[in-house]
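Q: My collaborator sent me two sequences in one message, no labels, and asked for predicted structures for both. Can we handle them in order? The first one she listed is below.
A: Yes, handling them in the order given. First sequence, followed by its structure tokens:
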Amino acid sequence: MSVKTILLAAGGGNGDLVDKLAATATDIADPADAEIILAHVFSDAEYDEALDRLNLSPDAEVTPSAIAQRKTDVRDLVDRLAESGLDVTTYGRLAGDASRGERLAEIAEEVDADMVVVGGRDRSPAGKALFGSTSQDVLLESACPVTFVRAT
């Protein structure tokens, strides 16, 4: 299977996973003909906090993609992937009434991704039940193969 388009999920708190996510995407992708779609899905509260930190009003003409590009972990991933010669496009999206994982699966379908790469941590069954799991939702909702990168 040729992997031309990889959706790389860049979630909040993935700072410790940046190197592992970048290495995984770089190992899978061929710089000559692959594209990385770097996606971050905001909760409404997270997006409002980002607008506040940037001193922007909710009415400002700014997109979730523009805000995602300003996130440290997203910038770090873009820099590491660019060093490998990969083409990177950043997508930001609001979760709205869906889970982050569902939105990531929607983006994967929109961009016709051949694979999704998502990072995460081990969590107890109770933790998953109480807080949900973006990685689990991506695994269940994506129409293409998903590679899970575990934090150490």
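Q: And the one she listed second?
A: Here it is, processed independently of the first:
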Amino acid sequence: MAYNHRENCEASICQDEIEPNWKNDRVWCPGEKICQKKPYQKFQKMQIEINKMVALGKFRNMDEGYTTHDLETKSI
């Protein structure tokens, strides 16, 4: 049986998502888990940077959730 990353991924946004509007429907909050499937996509790289700032206590928008579209297009 083939391994299906999406079935085992604990991240709220997974790059293997199959639903049509997943880039606008799924919400990720700073500090949450990140999909570890590689190669990393743009949204994952942004999540990693945000979580680094969270760990340092330098991220200010802790109460805001972000969609994949937000992470790929906004200056956060």
